[in-house]
Amino acid sequence: MKSFAPPFILAWLIRWTAYGASVPNLEALIPQRRVTENLGILQDPYPDKPRITFRPDGTFKLTVFSDMHWGENPWDSWGPEQDANSTRLMEKVLPSEKPDLVVLNGDLITGENAFKDNATLLIDRIVAPLNAAQIPFCSTQGNHDNQKNITHLQEILREQQVAPLTYTRVAPAGVGGVEGPGNYWVPVYEKASDLSPVLVLWFFDSRGGFSYGDNSTAIPDWVDESVAAWIESESATMNDAWGPAENRGALAFVHIPPHLIQNLQARLNSTKEPGLNADILGSGSTQSTTDEDDVGQDNAFWNSLNANVKNLHAVISGHDHGDEWCIREPTKNVIFCFDKHAGRGLFVSCECRIDLERPRSDKPDLARRTDLRETSLLRRLSAENGGLHINLSDSWESIQKSHYIQSRQGSSSDGSLLKDYI
What we know:
Elements: E1 9-15, H1 26-29, H2 32-42, E2 52-53, E3 59-65, H3 78-97, E4 101-105, H4 121-133, E5 137-140, H5 152-162, E6 184-189, E7 199-204, H6 226-242, E8 249-254, H7 299-308, E9 312-317, E10 326-329, E11 334-338, E12 346-357, E13 371-374, E14 379-382, E15 389-392, E16 402-409
Parallel strand pairs: 2-6, 3-4, 4-5, 7-8, 8-9, 9-11, 14-16
Antiparallel strand pairs: 1-3, 6-7, 10-11, 12-13, 12-16, 14-15
């Protein structure tokens, strides 16, 4: 039985400032025939859906719900009550936050408590508030989404069937390994008419859990090594079609965090890296650590992601319900963040403003590249009662970031949700 961790949402606000042309001169970079062919593949991976775009003011906001664990303990009163609370939370948060895109970051369902004849119907209830609000969304799947009565693929296909604005996709054949089909990317454009995006959102399937059927066996709990080659291939094709990777930013989502994150917990500085740190990372807390013989099996994925996806601003994971901190992973110099657990009692909103400086027409040396800079680190942690306000400024190795966290604690005695949202 999972812990009664309070709910969490993570909202990322990305600010873009444009200078000069909105797309690079592709003809000057690569042969036109190759451009045309690759743009035909990459320009619109969602031909039947609206393009995801920045707002006219140059901002883009993501809200993340993680580890909702729908369908848990349906035979007890607290299980259905928790599901009802999750729906109520989403119905209040979505119109308040007004996100441009929502991410459901894994463990949508507690699959081991689901029944084969209705397991996928839980997806209908999860996405109902998103359908009602007509907000586009993407999902990753977690270890509890692979169980004897449910699989990642079944969840994805059901999501595609019942949610017109889902952007969740299935990886090409041969990518993702056993029960790991949820590897894909979503382009985000400045304007819907643009040929190339200014931001790419990557989603990865960290698998785990157990295989489908009565003779269920454990599934590897890491992103399969086949994804490494796929990242390299997709990135190369993007560069051919859209120009150098420096022209765009990236964020990545994966349910189970990479195993290298585990060693960073001991060096957390509560002043520089604030946030709940209630779950001690150990066996099974990160990828490829359930069995000590498997440690490092996620290295191929982690190395390829950081080598091929340039301007990767952050990697965001769930899985460990009591953690919500961010830290820079030193070997790859990338920010990693936990997005905690969306359930009941606590609401956290985190906004990150990122200025993406486009090339200036008066600076020819920048004509074929785009500078992406994270600016203005400011963190503020405030309790609902106003008793705690922390404002910090830090350069974070001269790469500055704005990070606003607001926590509100609801009643824990009766399990009620935030009074501000429910």
